[in-house]
Amino acid sequence: MKAGLEVHQQLATGKLFCACPAELSEEIRGSFIRRLHAASGEDREVDPATAFQASRGLVYRYEVGPPTCLVEFDEEPPHPLNEAALDTALTFSLLVDAKWVDEVEVMRKIVVDGSNTSGFQRTALIARDGHLDVEGKRVSVATVCLEEDAARKVREADGEVVYRLDRLGIPLIEVATGPEIASGTEARTVAEEIGALLRATRRVRRGLGTIREDVNVSVEGGHRIEIKGVQELGKIQAYVDEEVARQRLLLGVRDELVRRGARVSDREPVDLTEVFRGIPSGPLSDVDRKGSRVLAIPLPGFAGLLRSPPGSEERLGRELADQARAVGLRGLLHSDELPAFGMTDAQITEARRRLELGETDAFVLVIDRSQERAEAALRRVAQRARAAIEGIPGETRDPLPDGRTRYSRPLPGRDRMYPETDIPPIPLTEERKARLTSLLPERPEALRSRLEREHGLGPEVVRQIVYSEQEPLFEELTARDHPAPLVVRLLFQDLPTVPVDPSKGSPFEPSIETLDGILSAVTAQRIAKEGIPTVLAALARGARDLDSAIEDAGLSGFSTEDLAALVDRVVRSNEDLVRTRGEGAFSPLMGDIMREVRGRRDGQEVAEALRRAIARVRAKGPG
After folding, report:
1. Coil, helix or strand at residue 64
2. What pLDDT is attached to residue 580?
3. Backbone angles phi, psi at 251, to 5 degrees
4. Measuring CA to CA, which residue among 197, 169, 209 is closest to residue 68?
5. What are φ and ψ of residue 486, in 5° steps?
6. Contact of 170 with 148, CB cutoff 8 Å
7. What DSSP character marks residue 461?
8. Which site in 20, 156, 198, 503 is 20 to 30 Å from 380, CA atoms measured?
9. DSSP SS3 for 134
């Protein structure tokens, strides 16, 4: 197999072609709608992905919040390109030794999902032919581009897709590698290295959704598949591995179809509505309840090849069902899973008779109130079945939470690009290169060495810091003289455990001042490090400030003297245990004390106080 990545990172430099703030907002002040029409590119050919999306006939609604401008509405020409964003893209290009273009030419790239009000995305090639050195292997960086982010999808229902304009126009650096990646593990490692280099510029946005990866995967004998919009770096390996398994399974199905001489004819769908009347529940109950039609097509030679083989979740039937869903159906039923859903053997036998099937033949059927839509679905299913005999069609797929993917649309082609006529070319001068070269940030490998040297941290901990979004926070908090191990605990152990607020739908992201205050409270012994998660949870629930959070968490008002008194009381109550077991009494007594003081005093402080108290009892001797 081989794979390549396209990494898209949002920049914290303001929007790319207007002065609107680049912050997300839940406040809505109005909306407007647009419809998508297929248009040709500069070669006068219509891109297949564009034609497919336009054929769906969807309405796109755009929600507007404060503030916004006519550039975002596509009712005013774009303003000059953001120079800070361009400098950031050029700086990254220098870090990967990519060759700058002579001048930046902004292009329009047709967007097929309605996520841009204009129907296209502005993008510009910045540099080419760079490379990364990752664990002894050189991976090429084919291109570095600067482009505008799309609008944020909010919901989709009943033929309407709703977007919010707050994300539209935020600058993105797009980094495309060559197809040299040879495994899912390597794909994740390369993505981590690109992410670290991007963060080294100190001009990238942090948080979920600010960096997204498109993963291109193919196996020998297969075709390039683009997995679009992976947001969790930790899942890249799973998506690559699952896609490799999917393609290999489908190639095995292809070989068997060829061996059988399978074929898919242009025969019109057969109406089986009358065959499947009288089913009281399940998808076929819609025949009697809603007047739905049941249409089917035969698949000669496909029997037994539509279901999942043992030990796999992938199957050709799922690929066919995705095509039915693409035109608005909930899916389809195929003969390898029947009889089921209330069907009888007699109904299946009659369906096979009407479809004129032999023992090695299969069939698929769809149920819908619209005969026109059902026929359109079966045409797409037949087309995908024909492609199965050839192998694996190239396509764009959406990532699913379990590491698998689902069909989205055909792969876009070159016919979706044409020049942006509203933005003049931007020459890249030697003076600009000299200025940015003199300001190059620290590379990840140098950063790793420095952190190990300055903080005495182990290589694995340092790797976790460097390849995470929290590295800038780690640097700033340790620069404020907080101990590195305590900062690591806060950022990588305690902060990720804070529950997501359902009303906000995003992880809790306290400010640098709040984190500084929490660490200072631990140093001043106002709270123990074990109390950090409780304080963070109180802040996430809406505590007014740090003092209120400590109070809400029940961690205030417990001094060193209070601890000493508690330890003495517990030890006196268990003197017989101490005399009998000596140091063996430490663990049970420590557990009793920590249940009362956890989060209010440091565990090491409690242990030292308890050991002193045990020693005093033992020194007194019996009685």
Report:
1. strand
2. 80
3. -70, -35
4. 169
5. -70, -40
6. yes
7. H
8. 156
9. strand
Task: For residue 164, count other CB atoms closer than 10 A to its CB.
Answer: 20
CATH class belonging to 261-393: alpha beta
Which residues have CB under 8 Å from 130's CB, separation 6+?
A: 93, 96, 97, 98, 99, 140, 141, 144
Residues 6+ apart with CB under 8 A from 140: 129, 130, 131, 177, 178, 180
Tokens of 370: 């619209």
What are 144's two structure tokens? 């570095």
Residue ranges of the domains in the chain?
2-251+414-419, 261-393, 444-552, 560-620
Contacts 24+ apart (CB under 8 A), 478-487: 480/516, 480/519, 482/516, 482/519, 482/520, 482/523, 484/455, 484/456, 484/457, 485/457, 486/519, 486/522, 486/529, 487/519
CA angle 208, 210, 216 (to 5 degrees): 100
- pLDDT tens digit string along 235-280? 999 999 999 999 999 999 999 999 999 999 888 999 999 999 999 9
Q: What is the pLDDT of residues 189-220, one digit of tens each?
A: 999 999 999 999 999 998 878 999 999 999 99
d(CA 88, CA 204): 9
- Confidence band for 600, pLDDT divided at 50, 70 and 90: low
Q: What local confidence, expressed as pLDDT, does residue 417 receive?
A: 78
Per-residue pLDDT tens digits for 59-117: 999 999 888 899 999 999 999 999 999 999 999 999 999 999 999 999 998 887 899 99
More confident residue, 29 or 599: 29
